[in-house]
Write a structure and sequence with these properties.
Helix content is about 30%, strand content about 25%. The strands form 8 sheets. Strands 14-15-13-16-17-12-18 form a 7-stranded parallel β-sheet, with helices on both faces. Strands 19-29-28-20-27-26 form a 6-stranded parallel β-sheet, sandwiched between helices. A 5-stranded antiparallel β-sheet has the order 2-1-4-3-5. Helix 5 packs antiparallel against helix 6, helix 6 crosses helix 8 and helix 9 packs parallel to helix 10. The longest helix has 18 residues. It binds adenosine-5'-diphosphate and zinc ion (2 copies). One zinc ion binds next to loops.
Length: about 800
């Protein structure tokens, strides 16, 4: 028997399965989807069996054998194996990357290298002998000086030592030590025979007598009986108990169930949407629905009912939410309704916890998974529905290889299972809404809020006018008044800034110089806490200069509207207000996100100040005011999606106010109030925005009228990168059809990151049958040749941004 194996050797120029002989004793157990250890060149590497066959095209004498079978049952199902092939082709990724993305990180290979001493008598270097200390096998990592490494290389060259590579599994199953207490008569016997001085021993035995025949964890036993491990050990040796290790799951969080689990009566709109979805599910159709509902219209309730429907048919559900919406508030709604049937997958879990959740899914112990992007690969085998909440979010697109979009994967999986996909949003992506208007997707609309509350009143404040009247603060007079009113009434305010330190850079007021990163062509961000300037691309840090590096003026200072600066202004304007700040800096620690939100929901603060991480999911009854401090920051990005992103953010943020009994009010501060993205977000008027934005996209030839593919080149040498970019672009122009527009090569908008120059080429097309094939050829040149010259090249079939 021959196995086709994809090996875990990234960046190897040949991306295809290799044939290996299956040893006779493994023939009955090996299956496609199992992991194996195989020899590859001089090493042993991890591989995935993707197929089995009788014969190889190669001479059997030349084939190597599988070294070890890691899984006795496939970890990747047939459906997911096919999906990985499709994914590799569609995103132009290595097959190995497409396979690895389906599994939790804990199951991916890690290598450890060992020095194996073959001829100890031939080693004469004293330092090296001292290092080996008589050992025959030494982890290579211990040879951590250049001298030692030089010796390693020399002795390895002479065959005196060899270097062995061992594949290591990162995380094993978590096991807990369990103590099985003996029956009462045995315990009594032991108690009778022990020495009179063994007081602790007697104490433990009496404690055990009360629990004869029970099983407890060793940890529990020691906590409750208050004895030391040695005492327990002695008791076990005397036969009073036996020990064993039991497999357990790491519990990510203790579920706290409320009794709001009783479903409420649906509104007419919700019922219509639900009926359409369940009818489709009952017919086994792979239908994609776009659920367009204003903020607070009760989309989540529709999801919950639809899931319930498919669970009753014995099927499973995948729910994707953007990482930042994976708040306890959101996940608890699913846990309340479906209890222990829910697994939650988010980046806050440790590798071990993620692996545990994955195993629960694989074993069918849970039926619903709520998770971020990668949960789309949940190893269910009878999927009844797939839901993407906030479908417009750019986090559904993976930026690293394989550069997939979760929506495309969802639709692909739904075709296999014949089940519906629901894309939900208050502000659908233009792509999805355009597909819905062409009946590729089925449009379902929720126009009213579930409890019939009014949408909040939105006021757009022209900050240019504020400047004219001499107000240089970040707060307009009207927003400041509104905040004071809330403080007075004991209601809560949410203040929103687009990005962490987005525009807080250091600027010379005399010559206009902005301090930039020496490695990247981008301005450094000012961090007040430690008076440092930081680069968010490469991590470079430096002190704030005292004089301008260009003109030596002393009038060099920070300029901008970061969250830290906002916090200081709030302290000045509203000294009595209690403020919680939420941004990347204050939520770095595990659990801090949840803690801050809980404090706010418990009324421990009057104002919540934050970045986009607070734009979603917040649903607190006491929030009656939302202020956007600077709406323009996303508008000026060099990105064709800038207006769309601004509209989405404004709508989402506004949706946080007045979701319950108290009416809400929203202030949007901007320097460009006339821009349609801001003007139309005011009334949550999606359709007019869609129409205007579509006209702009048509005019400039952007998605959804054209597809775009971005090819990016980076190199340390500016001339080399320009040269390769030129070569690549010419190859594309020569091979793609004449209707396809190829823009470039051009320097990228951020033209240098981490000392590597960046060039790019943009392909715009409507129909290009030769695209994949041509790009594959280009990638082949790159992998076999160009890469050796120090170039990196990436291809992104549906870039989230193009700069
Ligand atoms: P969306 O996801 O569309 O923003 P949610 O599902 O969060 O909206 O619903 C908004 C609020 O309305 C929630 O507090 C929810 O409990 C409530 N809600 C949803 N559906 C109903 C209903 N049919 N009757 C009463 N309240 C509802
Ligand atoms: Zn200057
Ligand atoms: Zn940098």
């Amino acid at each position: 028997m021959i196995a086709e194996v994809i090996v875990d050797v990234s960046a190897y120029p040949i991306d295809r399965p290799f044939d290996y002989v299956v040893p006779a004793h493994l023939e009955v157990v090996i299956e496609a989807g199992c992991r194996v250890k195989v020899p590859f060149g001089p090493r042993k590497v991890l591989g995935y069996v993707t197929g089995l066959k009788e014969e190889s095209g190669l001479e059997s004498g030349k084939l190597k054998s599988i070294h070890e079978l890691i899984d006795l049952e496939p970890v990747i199902s047939g459906e997911l194996l096919d999906l990985s092939r499709w994914l590799a082709t569609q995103t132009l990724a290595y097959e190995i990357d497409a396979l690895q993305v389906m599994l939790p990180a804990a199951m991916r290979a890690k290598y450890e290298k060992f020095i194996v001493v073959e001829e100890p008598e031939s080693i004469e270097e004293v330092d090296f002998l001292r290092f080996l200390a008589g050992r025959q096998r030494v982890p290579l990592a211990e040879a951590d000086t250049p001298e030692l490494l030089r010796s390693v290389r020399r002795y390895a060259g002479q065959g005196i030592i060899t270097v062995d590579t061992v594949v290591n599994q990162k995380t094993a199953v978590k096991k807990v030590r369990m103590i099985q207490i003996a029956e009462a008569d045995i315990l009594q016997n032991v108690l009778d025979t022990i020495h009179a001085n063994a007081k602790k021993q007697a104490e433990l035995l009496r404690w055990m007598l009360e629990r004869a025949g029970q099983t407890v964890s060793a940890k529990q036993l020691m906590e409750q009986s208050g004895i030391q491990p040695a005492v327990l050990k002695a008791a076990i040796e005397r036969g009073a108990a036996s020990e064993a290790y039991a497999e357990v799951y790491r519990e990510p969080e203790a579920p706290q169930l409320k009794d709001t689990a009783i479903p409420m009566e649906l509104t007419g709109e919700q019922q219509l949407a639900l009926d359409a979805i369940t009818t489709s599910a009952d017919h086994g159709q792979a239908e994609t629905f776009l659920l367009h509902g204003v903020t607070g219209s009760g989309k989540t309730e529709v999801y919950l009912r639809a899931i319930n429907h498919v669970l009753e048919q014995g099927k499973e559900a995948i729910v994707l939410v953007p990482e930042i919406s994976l708040t306890p508030q959101m996940t608890s709604r699913f846990k309340e309704r479906f209890g222990p049937l829910v697994a939650v997958m988010h980046s806050g879990l440790s590798a071990g916890e993620k692996y545990d959740e994955w195993r629960k899914i694989k074993r069918g112990e849970v039926k619903v998974v709520v998770g971020a992007r990668s949960a789309i690969f949940a190893p269910f085998e009878n999927i009844g529905i797939i839901i993407l909440d906030e479908e417009h979010e750019s986090t559904y697109k993976q930026e690293d290889t394989p550069r997939y979009h979760a929506r495309d994967v969802a639709i692909k999986r739904s075709e296999y299972y014949g089940c519906p996909v629901i894309l939900g949003s208050a502000t659908p992506s233009l792509e999805s809404y355009a597909r819905a208007s062409k009946d590729v997707y089925t449009l379902l609309t929720l126009k009213r809020r579930a409890k019939d509350q009014e949408l909040p009143t939105v006021t757009v404040v022209d900050m240019r006018e504020e400047l004219k009247t001499g107000n240089r603060s970040m707060f307009s007079v009207s927003l400041a008044d509104a905040v004071r009113e809330r403080l007075h009434r004991g209601e809560q305010t949410v203040l929103f800034l687009n990005k962490r330190g987005f525009s807080s850079f250091v600027l010379c007021r005399d010559c206009g110089t902005v301090v930039e990163c020496p490695n990247c062509d981008i301005s450094l961000t000012y961090h007040r806490a430690n008076e440092m300037l930081k680069c968010h691309y490469c991590g470079h840090e430096e002190r704030v200069p005292l004089v301008c590096p260009e003109c030596e003026s002393e009038y060099i200072r920070f300029f901008g509207t970061g969250t830290q600066k906002a916090q200081e202004e709030i302290a000045k304007l509203f000294p009595e207000a209690r403020v919680i700040r939420m941004d990347v800096d204050t939520t770095r620690q595990k659990g801090s996100h949840e803690r801050l939100l809980r404090q706010f929901s418990e009324g421990q603060a009057d104002i919540l100040l934050g970045t986009q991480m607070i734009a979603k999911g917040l649903d607190f009854p006491n929030i009656t005011l939302v202020g956007v401090l600077a709406a323009d920051t996303t508008l000026h990005l060099a990105d064709f999606r800038a207006a769309e992103k601004t509209f989405q953010l404004m709508t989402q943020v506004s949706g946080r106010a007045g979701r319950h009994e108290l009416p809400g009010e929203v202030f949007i501060q901007t320097y460009t109030p006339e821009h349609y993205a801001i003007d139309l977000a005011k009334a949550q008027h999606y359709e007019p925005f869609y129409n205007l934005e579509m006209a702009a996209r048509r005019q400039y030839g952007y998605p959804p009228f054209y597809y775009v593919t971005l090819v990016q080149f980076t190199h340390e040498d500016l001339l080399k990168v320009a040269d390769f970019a030129d070569k690549g672009t010419r190859f594309l122009k020569g091979n793609l059809s004449s209707n396809t527009v190829i823009i470039g090569p051009t320097a990228s908008a951020i033209s240098r990151v981490n000392n590597r120059y960046r060039y790019q080429c943009l392909i715009k097309y409507k129909k290009e049958p030769k695209l994949i094939e041509t790009l594959q050829q280009l990638i082949k040149y790159y992998r076999t040749d160009w890469i050796k010259a120090g170039l990196t090249m990436t291809v992104d079939m549906e870039p989230a941004s193009i700069y």
